[in-house]
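Notes to self, glycerophosphodiester phosphodiesterase:
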Amino acid sequence: MLSPAPEAATNQHDRLVVAHRGACGYLPEHTLAAYELAIAQGADYLEPDLVMTADGQLVVRHENEIGTTTDVAGRREFADRRTTRVVDGEVCSGWFTEDFTLAELTSLGAVERLPHLRPHSSAFDGVFSVVSFEEVLDLAARSRRPDGGPVGVLAELKHATYFAGIGLDLLPPLLDALEDADLEDEGDPVIVQSFETTILRRIAQVSGVRLGQLLEAGGAPYDLVVAGDHRSFADLWSPAGLAEISRYADVVGLDKDLVIPRDAMGRLLRPTGVTTAAHDVGLEAFGWTFRSENRFLPREFRRGDDPAAAGDLAGEIATFLAAGLDSVITDHPDLARFVPVAEPAFLGAVAA
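result:
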């Protein structure tokens, strides 16, 4: 069901709700329709992922390979652009944004990434087009949340080191777009985030925009790998690592497993305290990604055996808010907006 935020409810602003790729639990990701629905559902921020085009523009896609999230495979005029690349150390085959102009990319239709879990969304395959970063910024600027507040943008830069290696620097078009949208200062409703550290440090040197360092439970930032820096994500989310991040960023975007890990059966263990450690050095703690389908939920919040069925997302979100998150990044902003924060004692029920 496509549902706006309930008019009779009172907005809960003890947390920020970030619409992950728009309201992509309902409509194909990174489309204006998905972002418009997210705004109607009460999202505070929209979260576009940004990759580069052949003509040096920013297009909104989760990764630069677009074969699984657009209808490019059915476009005969682009058949000869299928190729194989090594992106962030992994071999990928398909169609890549850096081989298309922005005009060509925005002629493509978006398709559902998870049709087996979200057939209601795949019914809209090809209906909505791929969009530019400027289109998302414009939508946010002319929109208001149901409570009248501004709509922010949490923009994620993808594959910065890879793109730099092929002569496409993400930074100039990003700064140009933010300047054109008058979003250049710390108080403006925009945050730029990345898993890579170097691009964030570069932005910090030339812009006052707020920055977010994304952190995974495993692996290492690709820019550090390429530079021969042996620090892992685990080093970055240590107390010393968080203190270093606070020198250039304002937010840490935490993999949920860093906040409350799961056991081998998928049940939640106890909170790690990483949110407290982040707060202690002045960082806000955002958590990703909250989705309603059983496939993604901790075992205690699943309902039935169908992986595509909706479980208790509200219960999961309440638990993570009680563990100290300031924001939830979710595919279902309507379900996150009105979740009451659980009493801290609720965490006592989480398995040890």
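- The CA atoms of residues 235 and 241 lie 6 Å apart.
- The first strand starts at residue 16 and ends at 20.
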